[in-house]
Amino acid sequence: MHNNADALKVYKKTLQEDQKLKYSPNEEKELRLKYPFANVFIQFPTIGDSVSFPAYLKNLQDSFSPKFQSIDVFGRVDPIPVYQGTSRAIQFNLSLPAFKEEHAREILSDINTIVKNLYPSYLNTQSDKTKIINSPPLIRVKFANLICDYTNPARGLLGYVNGSLGITHGIESNGIFVVAGQEGAANSATGDGAIYVKTYELSFNINVLHEGTPGFNEKGEFLDSDQFPYALDGSGTTFFKEQTDGSANPSATSTDTSRQAGSTGGLTGTETGKTANKLLGGK
User: Fold this and answer.
1) Using an 8 Å Cβ cutoff, are 38 and 263 in contact?
2) Which of 31, 213, 217, 281 has an alpha carbon within 20 to 30 A of 135's alpha carbon?
3) In the predicted model, what is the mean pLDDT of residues 55-81?
4) What is the pTM (predicted TM-score) of this model?
């Protein structure tokens, strides 16, 4: 993925395959399908899996840590600082509300995808009991202009989960859906049903892998891009200008879109912005 068109193509495909959109409110569907900033995209380069969620971020913290080694020299009051590097880490919490049982099940399925991709890929050897690590579990996250690759703001920020991925099942605070076991299902023999939580929360701690070389040249110009670490200008790109019933259908008519309950099809840019801000946690 080396340009904007390739990045958008991946995000569009991810949205088209997002089963959660079937159960989301019409306002949320329309915003997610039309505006990239209304989504958080999570990709896993090792396997090629990807998931997307509405951008219900509760917090976002970005930290930069320059590292120096101090060398003491005889006759010098202060040690000599030797620069070793600057590391970057991001931490964010993502709230995942479910609007019905089927919606909660799809959210839990996507959580499973994320957790599975915290493990590496392996190569088989001649011995069935021995496997060799082929590639480590990496992650790429994209959220608007705040979490993106500064060398190509259209794609996500590359890194790895360091420390933990936290999954909060809001059982006591938000309630649950209880679904009876179905005949023929994997748990039918024991008579077990399934429990889905009405609101999940994910917390990510990610160490960033720089894909460029941040720093200045001899002319005092910042290398690669002066918009580091955050892109300052939005692309103005929309995904699907028209959609019906929340499906990613570029050929749907605007008439169909305007018939949706809560549709933003007839709103001005300012009004649509207010609706987006409301759904994304603003006022």
Assistant:
1) no
2) 213
3) 94
4) 0.78
Residue 142: count of CB within 10 angstroms of its CB: 27
pLDDT per residue as tens digits for the range 151-172 = 888 889 999 998 889 999 988 8
CB-CB contact of 78 with 67 (8 Å): no
Kindly write down the DSSP assignment for every residue of 65-133, as one continuous string: EEEEEEE--TT-SSPEEEEEEEEEEEEEEEEEE-SSHHHHHHHHHHHHHHHHTTS-EEEE-SSTT-EEE
- Residue that is written with structure tokens 């809560």 in the block: 262
Hey, is 31 helix, strand or coil?
A: helix
Question: 127 Cβ partners below 8 Å, 6+ apart?
Answer: none
Length of the chain: 283
- 220-244: string of b/e by CB count within 10 Å (b at 16+)? eeeebeeebbebeeeeeeebbebbb
